[in-house]
Amino acid sequence: MKSRFTAWMNVTLVAVVVALMTPSVGLAQADDDPRTEDIVYMADGRVLHGQILSETQAQVIFQYIDRKLNLQTKLTLARENIDRIDRDVPIEDPIEMEVKRPSRSKSATSQPGGGEWSGYGHFRADSDAENVPSFYVVPMKGQMGTDIMASIYKELIPDIREQDPDVIIIVMNSADYADTFAAALGDIDVQEISPPDFDEYKKLASVFHDDLKQYRQVVWVQDAVGIASTVALSWKELYMKPDARLGGMQMVIELTGANKWSDDDIRAKMMAAWMGSAKSLLEYGGYAYALADAMMYAPNMLSASFKGREVVWSLDEDGEFVIDNDDEHTANFRADAAENLLISDGTADTLDDLALLLGFREYRVVDAHAKKIVDGYREDWRAAYSNAVSSWKDYQQYMGWANGEDAMQYLSKAKRAVERIIRAMDRYPPIELRWKQEMGSTKFQLEMLVEQLTQRIRALRQQRGTRGRGGGGLGAGGG
Amino acid sequence: MKYSPLRILACCFALAIVATALAAPSIEIRLKNGSAWRGELNDFVQVKFVEQNVEIQLTGRLVDATKYYIKIDVKLAGEPATKTIFNGDIRSMRTVTVDDVSVAARTSKTTRVATREEGIATPKDARGVFVLPMSGEVGLTFRHEQIEKMAKHADGFGPGQIIILLMDSHGGGIEMEKVHDTIMKVKKRHRVIAWIQTAISAAAASAIACDEIYFMTDGTLGAMTGYSGTTALKDEELEAWLKTAGQWMENGGRYLYIAHAMIHAPSLLSYDKDAATGEVIWHNDLSGEHVLSDEESNLVFTSGRATDCGFADGIADTGEELAELLHLGEWREIDTYGRSVAKDWQDTVKKAEEEIPRLLARRNMVTGTPERRIGALIRIDEALIKWIDRAPAIAKRMIPASKDFLEREIRELRKQLADLRKRR
Q: In chain B, at which end, N or C, are there fewer CB atoms within 10 A of the end residue's CB?
């Protein structure tokens, strides 16, 4: 079984590499009779159409032709994986394979100018031409639950509907910690770890999978470490950048505290409830529950076996391919492993690569507001949080000065500083969350602080009024 | 021996479930899927059964019940007849009202009821539905009172209305028993459907009373373990809860051991599914192909598993999708009564959760002259009493004093105020 998988993997990898390396201008190079084709029936059920270029006892070099995508790729097929071959089969309704050559010149047809050829057959067009497939790119960058919230993405719905794209590309770049040596040693900013607020993430998933379900959607993972990886797995079509990570959920269960209950039944209940929340996101993507089990809970191991082209996962190390045999760490995936194990549909370094993998020779990125809204929100709330922290320092300083004659003046300033923090929380909900984590107080406590300051100011004012009236009386007496 | 409030709560919980467990109907019919129907002769029942590979649904009066078959009086092709159905052929069985029988007779001249794939299990007459959102904590915002109000409102439209309980709750307290009982009562006159976004713990225990359960894609249901403080129910309390929850599970037409797997980690559960017929055989051990709960796990269903094993009837993320599954033709909400009832109560609770802590904090911050302080305290106590009247459940939890205590304190404060004024 293992050797069969290895052979299959070799074929796949060779195919991908060759596909990426073969320029589209080579499409018409096959010199066999174009009216016939060879059909290879693979043992795993695939049926490959094309031309046999050469063959030995051990292998067949095959020019695979996908007429729908107008692509061809050279494959090396091991004999042992081939069920049978039909040679020189007449092509029914042969399609004239179009050879599109790179061009920088403007064109009114489906190949508008201004874009760039990147070298392997796809083209990013710089045009509004309706006949060029459109991509709507949605950035999902930063911390889940603060930078990435359902309410922000809900704002994009009208714009997406107006643009009516062919594909929505969700560019996921959310990591609880960096891929660095320092992070590996534990140098992690705990404030940047995404909170395990699955209700929020279910709302986020619902924006895409329910409100926008009529659109084809693809998540392109640039990095997904922590809760982000569960959210990424809510998309059926998942691609990754070559250096992308998918996993890092070791801390999720720790943050929920589910595994810390000493009572067996309560611990099982809490674990099931939290794991259920994570698995419910995987339901959208159709991934195996075992992935969530192993990616979230360290004692679960993970291995995989292939049944035809289907991966059968097991939470132990008994499968043909062991992904995680360490009961102290959760399972994680890099792009290559995720692709080999059919979690990811492919690895794409650039949007052009992704377009190719999605089957688009040409595409255009619609001029949308997503980046402005999403990036703007992230930058704005973080700037507002920084100002809020500064206001808190102001408050502390003013309170230190609120004595004697200056008490009224500085209490008023201190109160205004706290009110600024509350206003920031009202405008940006992530500030309240971050404030609670970092400063240890809630919005309610700040509101009560304002009330206390108001009362102190009122009392001072009354005292002054009393003194003022009394002083006036004395003055008058003295005169 | 000291009794903490939590201990008392646990005891109440245990007593309540023991009391429920003791009640038992006179006839029990064990179904092939492991569930059981309980009732009495002459009950009106709706039975789904398979005859010559065709799924048939009949509604009529139960006239005989033996170990191997039941007999029901029905109208076949408009003529009264007695139909014998072998217990082994029964897919599901539920108690219905007389009105359901007349509706069934009116809407279908032939007794053959198509399977879901064939489409017309219920008439496509674009019947409307009532939706009651039930979210938040069970006993606080997720309450039986809302279901009662909804049912009473639906009564005005005649029996047999479709009431959809849209559930989104991580659980709560023993209120679930009232919710369960209320659903069971309402089921006798209306079709009550649970539509699950989240139903964990007490919310799951509430939902299982429904004969029909639909999941949203990201829906979850399960984890019904009862606990107090840091300890789960043990021994007799646990046994009583397992028995009650098992019965509740059966009341919804499901295998009782599903409830056990949702409560007690060592309870095992697995199932086999016939690839051709889709028939599910349950096992309260690990002998089935699909293991749902091993000796260390608690069971929480997600949508895929719940529908695969037949625990849930389908997956719907929108009203339109649900309408299709219910064979309603189109999604039409008769009115927004249920949504308004839910929203009004949610708003009340939200306001209480904001206002009560504020009032309590102000109580400790009162300053000024003695008259001013006393006046402020009286106003705060009066506001707290208003909350006790308006939202007793939440007030009980948040206000560390009874209404009687606050009323006495107000009298005391008024006396102090009067004395102060006298001394002036």
A: N
